[in-house]
Amino acid sequence: MSSSSYAGFIARILVFLLVIETGNAASLSPDFYASTCPKLDSIVRHKVRKAVQQDPRMGASLLRLHFHDCFVNGCDASVLLDDTPTFIGEKTALPNANSLRGFEVIDDIKTKLEKSCPRVVSCADITTLAALNGVVELGGPSWIVPLGRRDTTTANITAANNDLPPPFSNLTGLISAFSRKGFTTREMVTLSGAHTIGLARCTTFRDRIYNDTDIDPKFAASLRATCPRASGNGDNNLAPFDPTPTAFNNDYYQNLKLQLGLLHSDQQLLGSSSTRSQVQKYIDDPTAFFNDFAKAMVKMSRLGPITGTQGQIRINCRRVNPSGVNVKEVVEEQGNMARTY
Questions:
Q1: Most buried pick, 172, 243, 320, 335, via CB within 10 A?
Q2: Closest alpha carbon to 164 in 97, 260, 119, 115
Q3: Which residues are catalytic?
Q4: What pLDDT digit, counting tens, does each position of 42-86 carry?
């Protein structure tokens, strides 16, 4: 096969895969559980509200959990799977280990749903809805969540290590990482605004506060008290991304203009005229940020979903179903339930 023919063949394969992925995303619907689990929204909302009231940081943790799920082979709940003697999940990947939180909240929601509508709602959909409600509980925007995802039976620790943009990324790296998932540079700047809530570990900003020059000196000095230079000393100490870590607002972008970005990757958003202009727009118009963030989150929730009779609807979000439970049976059961309501 000539090089040109081979290139054409590869191009057709990529188009075919894109069509499949787009078709899967198109099959999602906000009303997917309207008849089979009508209490879904209220159950998730109640459980997330309770969790955020007990620990306000949890809103940000649930949002991050969703992001780390979707950016690795799509929104398929792979990030929730525990390691076993014969299975390696994604929880021990470098971006996730000793960092991701919120698994117990997902478990709590799943337990309640299994009592209300057993074997109906996927863990992938629960994670997606939990992220939405976590943002809303902290004063952020709402959006319509398309539903109908299935849960994967696999995980990919290599992709988790490679696909999630690290906190030391430069602007080019950020643009490339998001572009590979189908996001524009503008959407990358928008989704970076998720750092308006939550805290970060010392390991993620240590290099910045000791080596970067585009950082306010007083700000860097204050963080050094929390995060000593020596690796292994204070690694898990925390600092807020902005002054209001439990309020979803535009303070994150205002911080960048003052060289108060916590992560190296945060401050990189001022690295080009177009991204600087967008940062300024969100400073001047927080409503624009809220609207753009909601749209970008809907787009992210559509990354690579498993739908139809593929995958599983896990009974326990931390492990794949026993071999005797398959998704086809569950889907057929859903159809029967829908006809009886």
A1: 320
A2: 97
A3: 68
A4: 999 999 999 999 999 999 999 999 999 999 999 999 999 999 999
